[in-house]
## 1
Amino acid sequence: MKAFSLRRIAVALAAVALVCALAALAYTLSYRAGIDRLSGQLRDRLTVTQRSVESEIERFGYLPEVLGEDERILELLSEPTPETVRLANAYLETVTSHSLADVAYVIDTDGLTLASSNWNLPTSFVGHNYSFRPYFGEALADCEGSYYAVGVTTGVPGYFLSARIDGPQGPLGVVVVKVDMAPLEQAWARAGEMTGLADDAGVVFLSGIVDWKYRPLHPLAAHDRQLIDQERRYDAIDVAARAPLVEAGFGSSQQVFIEDENHSLALSTIRIEPQGWQLFTAQPTAPVADEARLVAVLVGLLSLLCILIGLYAYQRRQLTRWKLEQNAVLERRVAERTAELRETQDSLIHAAKLAALGRMSAAIVHEVSQPLSALDTTLAAAGMHAQKEGAAKVQSSIQTGRALLRRMQRTVKHLKSFSSRTQALPTDPISLAASVNAAIEIVAPQAREQAVEIRFSPEADHVLVAVNAVRIEQVLINLLLNAIDATATLGNSTVAISICSGADRALVEIVDSGPGIPEEIAEKITEPFFTTKKTGEGLGLGLSISRAILEDYGGTLSFAPAVGGGTLTTVSLPLAAHQPLERTS
């Protein structure tokens, strides 16, 4: 026994180890696949974003050179006078308002700004020297230049595009257009994208994440820090003192993983030429890890399920013999319990019959005592007629007495048949109208006692149902007694019964003129032992037993408000096969 237990423990430990190994393998493979999928998404996003950045840059690339071809700009650079300055300022202001550029200005060969579109603002560039800016030197040396920096005059960052203006004797000056790239940044922020743009040194100057702006993308080289300070690229912002996003340098188009406060991120970059900028975007890896964990859990559960199925199959083979041995015992016990249940149900049905008879006892006594009194009087009259030798009158009295006896015999026969114990078995098709008439015969004394008239006049006797006659009569008697009591409580006098048949079912509809069924008890009235009568007037079994009897034959019992007040009680039973489908009311 001990060896068996140890073997079971060893099997369980081996199963747990196997499940853990499969789950770990599933996690690794799923995580790698998720990272590859995430990398593809990052590349796609970079490609789209690169197109939008390049479009923003190229949108104003032509403008400096076009401005330099205007006569007003050429005259200003050739001979700067108050008039030429005024005309150039007006021209630049008009061009920027139409082109949506931020600022356009003209610089002489010494770097001094002669005219600017913002000449009339406190942040005017006029009179400032920008010879230290790389875009100025690049334009003089190579005809054009570009540069992104924070404005030393306005403090507003922008992308500077420049073009050299030449005259007959050589360079006359440089035209510069400043472009505000903030809309890109705002679009990234609205979209919730972790996207940014870093300059050639690696300093992030545009980003959808506020905390990333003016932070190094990676640690800055010494000569880059010196050049940034010399060019006053981010004037008054100590970018070198800020922590880089990535702790070590990495190449273009390379994917790296970073930890950013509450996130673990996958970051990819791409280079934008000729500016040398680095466009990057990132996405959290948490969804990938969550998906991998979910896959691992599912694989572990499936593995465990397979193991359990195997163990279950093994155990089932072991238990099959024992189950076969127990089946006989179980079947015997089920048969015994079923017989007991049937006996109990029959007893309850019989008790409900007796309870119904109890409700009618006073009316039944009256129904029997009245003919007995009349019979006594009739017999006395017959004796008197016999003494006087009145044969005709004696014969009439005897016939009257026999009629009274037949009336009592009929009443007793109905009561005897109703009160008998009957098994709930289907019989040959019976007439539903005959069962209704039999039930009316039994409840008639109760109806007369309470001054209630029962209206039922079937046109034909052809609606057949396959039920036990006495059982269905018990149902109808219970329902009729309830209808009589409900009608009498309001002082009304009519209970109407009708029969109709459809495609495959017969309906008995009983309409009383009572107060109706309150909504709060509508769902309880067919529960066993639920009654609204005073203590001692009912067992609360009538409707419960009626429903149970109907269900034995595939029938139903339902209640609804009647038109004009009262309750419509509907008994539905399957029609017996092969009968005409007509309406009887």
## 2
Amino acid sequence: MGVGNLKWSRPEQLEDLLCELVSWDSRTGTIGEIEFSTKMLKKLLELQYFQENSSQIHFHDAGKGRNAVTALYSSGVTNKTIVLMSHFDTVHTEEFGGSLEDLAFQPRLLTEEFKRRIADLPDDVQVDVASNEYLFGRGTMDMKMGIVLHLHLLERACVEQWPINILFLTVPDEEVNSSGMRAAVKGLVELRELYQLEYELFLNSEPSFSQKPQDDNYYIYSGTIGKIMPSALFYGKETHAGEPLSGITSHFMASYLTRAMEFNSDFVEEVYGEKTPLPVCLQQVDLKEDYSTQTSHHSAALYNVFLMRQNADDIMKIFKDTAIRAMVDCSKDYKAVCEREGAQPLGEINVLEYKELLSYAKEKIGGAEVRVILEDIMSNESLDERQMSMLISDRLLLRCQDLAPAVVLFYAPPYYPAVNSSENELVQEKIALAQKVLREEFHVEAKQVHYFNGISDLSYVNYDTADSGWQSYQNNTPVWGETYSIPFKEMQQLQAPVLNIGPFGKDAHKLTERLHKKSAFLYTPRVLEKVIESMFAVIMS
């Protein structure tokens, strides 16, 4: 395949395009994230194919003014289609500080500045700065380079009339709630019907992440790890600090569950020799708004659990069992203190799922009143979905205090289902091909990882058609169907294997985020070309 008059093909052209896309500051939740889709539209219209077929570019509403963007190159000779997936939002840049923050989105200038400040950098970063093999900047690695690689492939397909269909997809809000990809799922289903497409492969180009510190290995991923947040509202009984045993604090209750949850191996999975990280508490929130000598009787905690083969129903069962055992221990210790101090203990601590609380509340105060409570909280734009979930559970239990002391178990967004295609013959073939190209043409060894460890939007495609465990998530997520939802049924319609091949980089989400230039501008473009070429029995010249 000759480069001809291609504009996004040679290494220097790819670097120029990367620097341009990085300069489009698109931090999650900023105006730049909103404007990126329009800028991408203009970039796509630089290609003659899309000037002539602009109707094949679509926006997909992701809320808050943001849009996912799709662009279809249709070969006209087959329905078989490869979906190229990426995200264009980046994390924020507070860690850059005043003097460097202006350079965060200017990779060449930032890289030169790091050369001047090399003595202030960690030893491993100094080595990479001195090597001249890395380009620094927010989004260089995660994941503006992935977009560049996909634009490169899209241009080649258009100009050289590849006998395949390429559906380019780039989305906002991957870094927070994946609103972009969740919106794009329905778009993918609609486009499949509109253009009679057959999705053969979902190909992401998230970067190759280190598995451990100082890890320079290059990885190819045949799946993506899942993440879910089982959460709990702790509702005790308030009292004056001078009479502590007349009640029970929510913090006392929470301490038992948090201790039982953190590092709990019951949640750990091991598949293909890879293990999920241990669960931890991501946040504990005191829902008492003002300081006083009244004890705090309501608080909440959010726990992070990673998944491989388990679903939301599996996790809730383990979570509930853990909570019940934790509250048994809590009650036992509390009663021992009361006996020691000659105080009368409260009753047992109830443990119930959110769906049980919701059903109880509807029966006690009526569905209309419950609806008022939910709408009042979800109409508050200053709250995010996690805060809303805590407050809904809290407000409902406030109206059902006969259940207290109690622990209400719920799910807080986001949820990323695990997806894996390691057993798929096509994926096995493509990974072997990618490894062969890297080894023979560039003397680079690439290792397969079965579950991408950085969380990715691949979670929202190729969902198991036989899985119904998601209903547990729907039933126990307080904001479900209002401010947050996952299109599980549509995801089950997007049945094609997943694969992630991206450039090598280091320190994603850090000040020293950097991209390996040869990997980005030489190795990975070649690998992706060969992988796509091999999908079809056509010689490309």
